[in-house]
Specification:
Helix 2 packs parallel to helix 3 (about 40-50). It is built from 4 helices and 4 strands, in the order αβαβαβαβ. By secondary structure, it is α+β, with helices and mostly antiparallel strands. About 40% of the residues lie in helices and about 20% in strands.
Amino acid sequence: MPLEELKKAEKKIAGMRQTMKAIENNIARAVYIARDAEEKVTSPAVRDCMEKGIPLFYVDTMAELGKACNIKVGASMAAILTENEEGSD
């Protein structure tokens, strides 16, 4: 699932807190991690995705990931959400 999928996705979120919440609530369909983000920030998401079988993709920079999510700042991680978002706030 290339970065184009994230750009085109109608249901997506950006940022560590929102992405971790989506993973925990089983509503993340795919997760994207910026390679230049601090490992201590991204490693819990990587671990949880591997445990839950959520596809994980890497993007070169936080700026590139933020741009793909239509935000003006960088993002350490982002996720495409499932169509059914039950369990989310």
